[in-house]
Amino acid sequence: MEILQLLISGISQGCVYGLIALGFVLIYKATEMVNFAQGDLMMMGAFFAYTYANVLEFPFVIAVLATIATMALIGVITERLLLRPMIGEPHFSVLMLTIGLGFILRAIAGASWGNEPRSLNTPYAGGVIDLNGVILGYENLVIMIGTALLCALLYCFFRFTRLGIAMQAASQNQLAAFYVGIPVKRIYAIVWGISASISAVAGILVAPVSLIDPQMGFIGIKAFAAAIVGGFGSLPGAILGGLLIGVVEQFAGLYLPTGFSDVSAYIILLIMLLIRPQGIFATMQQKKV
Question: At a CB cut-off of 8 Å and minimum separation 6, what does 179 contact?
Fold first, then answer.
């Protein structure tokens, strides 16, 4: 029973890591940029959800949709104003820009909502399902179902829509995509919007089980580790890497000495870099020069 309980908790936490890792992978595949502000976008999504649901008292579904739309707009604006002028600049410059963006978002959140932890009101808060002694909270169930639905939606989007196929083409060869008429810069903006929306969903899902505060975005560091473990460039790998780290964290917290739970993600990352640097799903292609 204890193992099943830990497994459920680990899968729930791993889904959150996986969703944030999806944002990392989407942006990298399309633009070859690494957005270290991804976790802070999740934090902003959680705060907007709190504002719409708790402060403005929108119906929960409306609050969710408004949060996703708001974060999509923020993602597009961020790409247009900050990242697009950096096209062609060294990757290190872009990396430092996104790290700085994370600091700015945390400062904005602290100034706007304060540093006091807050909780998100949801219609399913506090509910549990007893599975012969294994307790499954409604919050954890919603996280798992929400992650599964979002992954299915993304699969259908990239597999069956013209825009999704255009995004895949741009991620494979930006110059060739431009020559065949694909608006690559517009694709960049849409990818940032989608990535920010996914982070918003992660923030909405994790908010009922974790208090909302400006520092919650640091979870993005573990999500980055999950993206590398899964294969930095693989969407299924991002989810699998997140699940692996989430489950190991739970078991490490119970069976290993104090402190190992917090560093288990980085231990897994180091082991993966030593034995399989390309990650579980090796999809990144080496460029010839």
Answer: none
Burial of 197 (0-12, 13-18, 19+ CB in 10 A): buried
pLDDT digits 0-9 by tens, 102-149: 999 999 999 999 999 999 989 988 888 887 777 888 898 999 999 999
Q: For the CA atoms of 69, 160, 150, 101, what is the dihedral angle to 10 degrees? A: -50
225 burial class (0-12, 13-18, 19+ CB within 10 angstroms)? buried
Q: Does residue 285 register a pLDDT over 60?
A: no
Backbone dihedral region of 103: left (phi > 0), alpha (psi from -120 to 50 degrees) or beta? alpha
Q: Indicate the Cα dihedral angle 11, 17, 19, 24, nearest 10°.
A: -150
Query: Of the candidates 60, 91, 74, 81, which has an alpha carbon nearest to the alpha carbon of residue 205?
Result: 60
DSSP state of 118: B
Which stretch of DSSP H or E encloses residue 134? strand 134-137
Q: Exposed, middle or buried by CB within 10 Å (0-12, 13-18, 19+), for 287?
A: exposed
At 113 the pLDDT is 95
Torsions phi, psi for 129 (to 5 deg):
-120, 125
Phi, psi of 161 (to 5 degrees): -105, 150
Task: State the Cα–Cα distance between residues 6 and 19, nearest whole angstrom.
Answer: 20
Give the integer Cα–Cα distance in Å for 285 and 72.
29
Which uninterrupted H or E stretch holds 107?
helix 91-113
**Residue 289 pLDDT grade (very low, low, confident, very high; cuts 50, 70, 90):** very low
Question: What are the tens digits of pLDDT across the range 71-92?
Answer: 999 999 999 999 888 877 787 8
Give the pLDDT score at 283: 57
Higher pLDDT, 217 or 86: 217
Round to whole Å and give the CA distance between 235 and 229.
12
